């Protein structure tokens, strides 16, 4: 089974992790348009007010753990531009290489 998660915040990575637990053999891919995954956006107000001095404390699980320990393919700086459910394809913009992929 192939599973794609669009968005690598805490909720997206939680969904990918749950999918891995439910199907150890699934091919799971996450696309995130920014360079950081698994951050708790709900903690941002605490960072802004200074209660959390380092924004990286908002990251629940490091990127490498998803790749190496959970066998989840994570593509940061990749922005999903379109979804074609009939063809089961995505159009993704690869920001580092400045190219569009399907």
Give an overview of the whole structure:
The protein has 102 residues and is an alpha/beta fold. The protein has a single domain (2-101), classed as FAD/NAD(P)-binding domain, CATH 3.50.50. 25% of the residues lie in helices and 30% in strands. The protein has three helices and six strands, in the order βαβααββββ. The protein has helices at residues 10-22, 44-49, 63-68; strands spanning 2-6, 27-32, 73-76, 78-84, 89-94, 99-101. Strands 1-2-3 form a three-stranded parallel β-sheet. Strands 4-5-6 form a three-stranded antiparallel β-sheet, with no helix packed on it. The longest helix is centred in the first third of the chain and has 13 residues, at 10-22. The radius of gyration is 15 Å and the shape is globular. It starts with a strand and ends with a strand. The model has no long low-confidence stretch (mean pLDDT 90).
Q: Write down the domain tally.
A: 1
CATH superfamily: FAD/NAD(P)-binding domain
CATH architecture: 3-Layer(bba) Sandwich
CATH fold-level topology: FAD/NAD(P)-binding domain
Q: Sheet bearing the most strands, described?
A: 3 strands, parallel
Poorly predicted runs are none
Following the backbone from N to C, one meets helices and strands in this order, namely EHEHHEEEE
Mean pLDDT: 90
DSSP helix count? 3
Binned strand content: 25-35%
Query: Structural class, from helix and strand content?
Result: alpha/beta
Task: Specify the overall morphology.
Answer: globular
Give helix % range.
10-25%
Alpha carbon gap, first and last residue: 19 Å
Q: Compute the CA-based radius of gyration.
A: 15 Å
Strand order of the largest sheet: 1-2-3
**SS elements, strand count:** 6
CATH class type: Alpha Beta
